[in-house]
């Protein structure tokens, strides 16, 4: 098992259990999930002020968002020039930093398009923040539900405000982590699902993932009723 796979399993389990517990408390199920309620829970519990900011010139193209903690408040700023799905991912990414990485030594995280697509564990906070951002927008139980229904990826993307590229990466990492699939096999399967070439593959993957999560997420059955 590689470092990335091991860390993916550990952090994905942690954040999805957190989200599932809050879904249950908020009366949400896999059929009516809205990520904004999870945002509100984190923003309130961490006393975070969220502000859009119209970055200009070089910063407009390079900076996606940042989170800063000082003696007065914790501020989450995101680039208001971005498209809706990238805004969603950026805000979710910064919220994960707030939950797990901000401390007395690390008071600022600034993120770019590169860090928001980071998929290696050698920069652990960015790796975790990307796993967490994807999970906030599309929690594992919700993803499984949509896969089992054979929902087209473009519909999942639009329904949950997450890019198709992020869904592809999620499927790729999930198959490598959960089933020890090779990169080539996982890439090929994810590609077929994303291209809409195999509804049956999506359904089968959803069922197989469900068999795994039943034993790892104590809230799964309650939010799938």
TrEMBL record:
Residue stretches making up the IrrE N-terminal-like domain: 57-171
Pfam families xrefs: Peptidase_M78
Top-rank taxon: Bacteria
Protein name, UniProt field: IrrE N-terminal-like domain-containing protein
Taxonomic classification: Bacteria, Bacillati, Bacillota, Bacilli, Lactobacillales
